[in-house]
Design a protein that fits this description.
- The chain has 370 residues and is of the alpha/beta class.
- It folds into two domains: 216 residues, Isopropylmalate Dehydrogenase (3-Layer(aba) Sandwich), CATH 3.40.718.10; 130 residues, 3-Layer(aba) Sandwich (Isopropylmalate Dehydrogenase), CATH 3.40.718.10.
- The protein is 41% helix and 20% strand.
- α8 runs parallel beside α9 and α11 crosses α12.
- It is globular and about 65 Å long.
- The chain starts with 5 loop residues before the first strand and ends with a helix.
- Bound molecules: nicotinamide-adenine-dinucleotide.
């Protein structure tokens, strides 16, 4: 049956192709059981693209990514390509995708599945039922601001400089994404900066407040200093619904929040760009983990982070929230049944391979849809 939903899959390197294979099975399941059809194409990125074309992302692949409704990426990199020049390393493929697609909003959910409550370093009562979303500004701030560099001063000392810089439009567009998402969740947004010591933080706070007052008055907005947010995330993370923050603070806070929930093999992410005239938003979905060369090709990879990234694509790019929830529920029930890949093993659970975890999730989908 023809489909108007285009999905570009870029498995990449290491465990990327292994975890992506399990997503492909879930896509086939949707095709057969839910009559949800995707026009799927697959291409190369990272080391695999270097081996085939001499560069980590060909122009033709970039063009396909620009035209797809959603891009799903596995992971890039590995020891084989470690000694290449920085300009053609596998990671440059991923950076080009993010840059050319202008993906300014990075979404990192931190969800604690009941069955994995004990995998968190925090007490079960602090993390049980946790479901928060961090929205990190991804294309501005101190990682990109100029002037930057290391200079030698006349007295021989060296000085390193980076510049934290944000414009009103950069703040407003990421704030809009965050308010919009909060509206689809519990309706609460916490905006984090350091307005007490940084002018860019003062501007951030004022602009977020303006967007709230003029466009999203129904959302409950709170401003919080980023250092306080770091403390609150380990003290009482369930107080949050959606958090929006800049590139630097978001880098740190999203990793902190992720670890509340346990393993790297469980963490999905989405990066969103601007909407075009037709209302379509450029989007890239990928697990937070890398290519894990230490376990690649050994059926040890946990495919759940990538499956949950695909669920995010269903929710945010295809407006198929119910189908996204179905995948999340299938994962939850397989974990509750005691099956685990090696990275999330606990006493009393059964260790399974990547493929067997995929089998179990497809069977759980069957049951849920019956
Ligand atoms: P990594 O995330 O690949 O691995 C860290 C550890 O977590 C390893 O022990 C690995 O076995 C384990 N792990 C990761 N994902 C797992 C999964 N799904 N199931 C089970 N265990 C999993 O990080 P690293 O070792 O620092 O980097 C390895 C390579 O990946 C490097 O070349 C790095 O540049 C690249 N990398 C790529 C991305 C990306 O593509 N977005 C992100 C981070 C690192």
């Amino acid at each position: 049956m023809p489909s108007n939903k285009t999905l570009l899959m870029l498995p990449g390197d290491g465990i990327g192709p292994e975890v992506m294979r399990e997503v492909r099975r879930v896509i086939d399941w949707f095709d057969h059981r839910r009559a949800v059809h995707f026009d799927v194409s697959e291409d190369l990125v990272g080391g695999a693209a270097i081996d085939a074309h001499g560069k980590p992302l060909s122009d033709a692949t970039m063009e396909k990514a620009m035209n797809a409704d959603a891009v799903l990426l596995g992971a890039v990199g590995g020891p084989k390509w470690d000694n290449l020049d920085f300009s053609i390393k596998p990671e440059r493929g991923l950076l080009r995708l993010r840059k050319d697609m202008e993906l300014f909003a990075n979404l990192r959910p931190a969800i604690c599945f009941d069955a994995l409550v004990d995998a968190s370093s925090l007490k079960p009562e602090i993390v049980r039922g946790l479901d928060i979303l961090i929205v990190r500004e991804l294309t501005g701030g101190v990682y990109f601001g100029t002037p930057r560099g290391i200079e030698t001063l006349p007295n021989g000392e060296r000085r390193g400089v980076n510049t934290q810089v944000y414009t009103t439009s950069e703040i407003q567009r990421v704030a809009r994404v965050a308010f919009d998402l909060a509206g689809k969740r519990a309706g609460r947004l916490t905006s984090c900066e350091k307005a007490n010591v940084m002018e860019s933080g003062v501007l951030w706070r004022e602009e977020v407040q303006k967007v709230h007052d003029t466009e999203f008055p129904g959302i409950q907005l709170e401003h919080m200093y980023a250092d306080n947010c770091a403390m609150q995330l380990v003290r009482n993370p369930k107080q949050f619904d959606v958090i929006v923050t800049d590139n630097l603070f978001g880098d740190i806070l999203s990793d902190e929040a992720a670890m509340l929930t346990g393993s790297l093999g469980m963490l999905p992410s989405a990066s969103l760009g601007a909407t075009d005239a037709t209302g379509r938003r450029k989007a890239l979905y990928e697990p937070v983990h890398g290519s894990a060369p230490d376990i690649a090709g050994r059926e040890l990879a946990n495919p759940i982070a990538t499956l949950l990234s695909f669920a995010m694509a269903l929710r945010y790019s295809f407006d198929l929230g119910e189908d996204a929830s179905l995948i999340e529920k299938a994962v939850e029930s397989v974990l509750a049944g005691g099956l685990r890949t090696a990275d999330i093993m606990q006493p009393g659970t059964a260790k399974v391979s990547t493929t067997v975890m995929g089998d179990a999730i497809v069977r759980a989908l069957d049951k849920l849809a019956a």
